[in-house]
Amino acid sequence: MKKQGIITFKVDDKLFEVIREIPSRSEFIRNAILSALGNICPLCSGTGILTPHQKQHWEEFAADHEVQTCDDCRERYLVCIGGRPR
After folding, report:
1. What ranges do the domains of the chain cover?
2. What is the separation, in whole angstroms, between the first and last Cα of the chain?
3. pTM, whole model, 2 decimals?
4. Contact 25, 9 (CB under 8 A)
């Protein structure tokens, strides 16, 4: 694999000690980043904040959807309630 660039970042001492023990740190970090990118919120792109236009689109969508919590895993998910009385 041809290297396209190098990115560095700072970590605290505790994380440094853990990462230092990983045999292939670069591969581990690349895989962790790729995995995290696959789990980014499709609306906010991982910022945690909606722009005013995104908020407007969300409100239109939310009129026929609601966020519920799974009884088994306790994670939140979207449910279509279109046309159903609330």
Report:
1. 13-80
2. 54
3. 0.54
4. no
pLDDT, tens digit, for every residue of 31-73? 999 898 888 888 888 888 999 999 999 999 999 999 999 999 9
User: CA 17 → CA 14, 31, 32, 35, 78, distances in Å?
Assistant: 5, 19, 17, 22, 39
* Residues 68 and 79: beta-carbon distance below 8 Å: yes
Give the span between the Cα atoms of 52 and 11, in whole angstroms: 34
| 10 φ, ψ (degrees, to nearest 5) | -90, 145
Looking at residue 47, its amino acid is: T
Map the chain to HEC letters: CCCCCCCCCCCCHHHHHHHHCCCCHHHHHHHHHHHHHCCCCCCCCCCCCCCHHHHHHHHHHHCCEEEEECCCCCCEEEEECCCCCC
